[in-house]
Automatic annotation (TrEMBL):
Gene3D superfamilies membership: 3.40.50.2300
Protein name: ABC transporter substrate-binding protein
Locations listed in the record: Cell envelope
PANTHER family: D-ALLOSE-BINDING PERIPLASMIC PROTEIN-RELATED, GALACTOFURANOSE-BINDING PROTEIN YTFQ
InterPro entries: Peripla_BP_I (IPR028082), SBP_2_dom (IPR025997)
Primary localisation category: other
Signal peptide: 1-22
Lineage: Bacteria, Bacillati, Actinomycetota, Actinomycetes, Kitasatosporales
Region named Disordered: 307-327
Family: Belongs to the bacterial solute-binding protein 2 family.
Keywords recorded for this protein, A-Z: Signal
Amino acid sequence: MSKRAAAALVAGAMVAVLTACGSGGGSGSADKGSGHKLTIGFSQVGAESGWRTANTKSIQDAAKKAGVTLKFSDAQQKQENQIKAIRSFIQQKVDVIAFSPVVESGWDTVLKEAKAAHIPVILTDRAVDSKDESLYVSFLGSDFVEEGKKAGDWLVKEYAATSGEVNIVQLEGTTGSAPANDRKSGFADAIKGEPKFKVVASQTGDFTRAKGKEVMQAFLKSQPKIDVLYAHNDDMALGAIQAIEEAGKKPGTDIKIVSVDGVKDAFTAMSQGKINYDVECNPLLGDQLMELAKKVKAGETVERRIKTEESTFTPEQATAALPNRQY
Ligand code: GZL
C-alpha cells in the first residue's frame, strides 16, 4: 500500500458530517511548486435519473472550479464498463481514481490493480462490500439505511390512527446496489413493529422512470388493494404516478407515495399533492470530492467515511423550496 493511502487510513474510522454542499472549491490544484495539475479519473454509474444528472454536473462543475483535470466516464449502469474505465485510468496514471459503484460486489480485483499502481481510490455516493479496507481511502456519500428509516418512520406516524391493514408496494433501486439494499432494510426496520403494515409486492424499477411505470402497472394489475407506494428514488415514483393516473386513481390520495432523492420534478409533484413525503439524498458532492482528492494527493490524512447531511420534505416544505431548488 502506498505511503499516502496508509497515511489516509491512519485517520481511522472517524465519521465527519460535512455540510451537504460543502465549502469545497478553493484555489487551483497544482502541486505547490511542481505545477502538476491534479488529474482525477471518475467512473460514473450512468445517467439513469435526475439525481444522477445533478451528481454528474456537480462533479464536473467542481472540477472546473478547482482547476482539476477530470477524466469522466459514463458506465451506462454496467459494472463491466466501470471496471474497464478504472483500468484505463490506471494505464493513464491518473493521480486519484473516484467512482460511484453501480453495485456493491465484484470490485476487489480491479481495486487491487489500482492499489498495486499506487493510485488512491475514493468512493462517492455508493459503497462497495469489499472486506479489504485498504482498497479505498475514503467513502463520501449518504447513509441509505437512515434514508430508508426516515421513510418508514414517516409512514408509522402517517398511519398512527389507522387500525386496519396497510398494503405497501415497493419499487426497489438497481438490484445489488447499496442504495437499494440499504433503503430496503432501513424501511423494513422502521415498520417491523407495526403488524398492520404489509409489503405485498416489491420489485426493482432500476431507478428509472420507464421501469418504475412498468412495474407499477404490474402492481396495479396484480394487487387488489394498494394503500402506499414506497419508491427508492423519485424517478421511479414519477413513472409510477403516470401508471396510477392511467389506472384512474389519484396518486397522493388513493395511493400515498413516499420517495427518496428530493429532485425538482418530485417537488413539483408534491406541490400538486401527488407525492406525500420525500427523503432527501443530496447529489451535490462535487466540491467535497475535489477537496478530498487534493488532500489525498498531498498525502494528508482524510476521514474514512464522510456522510452528507440531508433533510426530509413534506409537500409544504417542497413547495416552498421549489423556486431555489438546484436540481
Ligand atoms: C443515491 C444514488 C441513487 C439515487 C438514484 O445516492 O446512488 O442512484 O437515489 C440514482 O436516483 O439513480
